[in-house]
Amino acid sequence: MEFTQNFIDGLLKEAEGNPRLRTNVDLRDSDSDGSQRMLNALLPGTKVDIHRHPASSESVICICGRMDEVFYDDSGSETGRIRLSPAEGRYGCQVPAGVWHTVEVFEPSVIIEAKDGRYGEDRSERL
C-alpha cells in the first residue's frame, strides 16, 4: 500500500460521506497481528470520545492537516494539548498509557495511530 496524495484525498472524501466525519484504514497485514495500526482521516466536527488505553501508550503521527491531541484528568478536566500540524513542523506525539485523551480537528487531517492491542480487545475505557 502506498500513501500517495490521491490516496489521502480519497480517504478524506470518504470521511466526508461518513456521518461520524472520519474513516480509517487498517494497516495490519494479518489476523494474527494483535496491534492497532491504522490511518485515520478526520474532519473538523468529528467527535472522538475521551478515552484511555490502560495497557499501552499510543503513537500518533500527523501526515496532513491541523489538530490537537487533548489530555484530561480522571474528572474530565483538560490538562494539556499538543498541536499536530506538519506545516508547522509538529508531526506527532506519544500518548502515555492510561492517560485520558481525545482530538480536536481544525482542518481535514490524516494521522497514523499505533499501539499495542486491537481496539476493543485492549481494555480501552471511555470517560
From TrEMBL:
Coiled coil: none
Protein name in UniProt: Cupin fold metalloprotein, WbuC family
Cupin fold metalloprotein WbuC cupin domain ranges (all copies): 4-84
Pfam families in the cross-refs: DUF6016
InterPro entries in UniProt: Cupin_WbuC, RmlC-like_jellyroll, RmlC_Cupin_sf, WbuC_cupin
Signal peptide: none
